[in-house]
Amino acid sequence: MEDEFLIAIDLKLLLQRRGWSVLGPATTVKEALALLDDELPAVAILHVTLKDGSVTLVAEALRARQVPFVVASAYSRPELIGGDVLAGAPSVGKPTEEHRLLAVLENAVRS
Questions:
Q1: Which candidate, 5, 19, 21, 82, has a CA 20 to 30 Å from the CA of 11?
Q2: Which strand (E) or helix (H) includes residue 28?
Q3: Which keywords belong to this entry (predicted)?
């Protein structure tokens, strides 16, 4: 999982350079849910699995709070791993290409 954390830090730095304010990254479901208790993001990027399991509970919490989210995954159908809450969520793929990531995030915020 260490490489996943490094990728998350790279994404954080990329987004910050582009003017985004970033919460996290969170490596566990527990950490992600704690972040949401402190502050709600305009949009979230979710990986399908975290250290302690599927991101399902985080996606459900985001949806309940009406926070849009996108999925960063190599899975063609992330809902098969993370549950129905991920069905239809925009995907930025994995590896994530910068231009696509920014476009999908901006679209999610506007929706």
A1: 82
A2: none
A3: Plasmid
How many structural domains comprise the chain?
1
Q: Look-up: residue for tokens 């490596």?
A: 27
* Chain length of the chain: 111
pLDDT in tens, the chain (111 residues): 445 778 888 889 999 999 999 998 999 999 999 999 989 999 999 999 898 999 999 999 999 999 999 999 888 888 988 989 999 999 998 888 899 999 999 999 998
Ranges assigned E (strand) in 1-111: 44-46, 49-50, 53-54, 69-71
Q: Domain of 78: which CATH number?
A: 3.40.50.2300
Q: Which stretches within 18-77 are classed as H helix?
A: 29-38, 56-64
